[in-house]
């Protein structure tokens, strides 16, 4: 199974949209996008999610956990994608400072 990540083989195909997957589990999760199934519930607000990963990210809104820190200004974020987006603002700020001098 691990070898598929090196060979690019994707033997599992979605019967709805024909997207292919290397692992059956990934196909099963993908199928929820077509069925709308959301088997994972938040115990705090009861919002439903398609994957346990999405639920774990959501739970941070209730716990206040922010494990991702900006290396420039030390602002913290609950999701790495928000940290990366924020980090680009520092790059833009530096470019603006250079062009205004």
From TrEMBL:
SMART domains: ZnF_C2H2. Signal peptide: none annotated. The keyword Transcription applies. Keywords: DNA-binding, Metal-binding, Nucleus, Repeat, Transcription, Transcription regulation, Zinc, Zinc-finger. Coiled coil: none annotated. Residues 12-39, 40-67, 68-95 form the C2H2-type domain. One of its GO terms (cellular component) is nucleus. It comes from the Eukaryota. Its main location: nucleus. SUPFAM superfamilies: beta-beta-alpha zinc fingers. It holds the Pfam family zf-C2H2. One of its GO terms (molecular function) is zinc ion binding. GO terms for biological process: regulation of transcription by RNA polymerase II. PROSITE patterns: ZINC_FINGER_C2H2_1, ZINC_FINGER_C2H2_2. It is found in: Nucleus. PANTHER family: B-CELL LYMPHOMA/LEUKEMIA 11, ZINC FINGER PROTEIN 208 ISOFORM X1-RELATED. This is Protein krueppel-like. It comes from Frankliniella occidentalis (Western flower thrips). The gene is LOC113203304.
């Amino acid at each position: 199974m691990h070898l598929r990540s090196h060979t690019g083989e994707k033997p599992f195909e979605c019967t709805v949209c024909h997207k292919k997957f290397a692992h059956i589990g990934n196909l099963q999760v993908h199928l929820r996008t077509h069925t709308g199934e959301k088997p994972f519930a938040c115990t705090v607000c009861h919002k439903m999610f398609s994957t346990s990963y999405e639920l774990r990210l959501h739970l941070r809104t209730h716990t206040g956990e922010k494990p991702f820190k900006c290396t420039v200004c030390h602002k913290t974020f609950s999701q790495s994608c928000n940290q990366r987006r924020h980090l680009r603002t520092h790059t833009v700020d530096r470019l603006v400072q250079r062009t205004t001098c």
